[in-house]
Amino acid sequence: MPGVFAAGDVRLGSVKRVASAVGEGGISIRSVHQYLAHLRESKSEA
Length: 46
What we know:
mainly alpha
């Protein structure tokens, strides 16, 4: 679903470890920033 991001135990196939969840959280934040930048670009083109 566009605009929904998850990390840690709520993610499909999680390994239920804190260190993994922290890393996945960082990846999720990067993905959120990319998604928002894409939305901004789409709005500015309209």
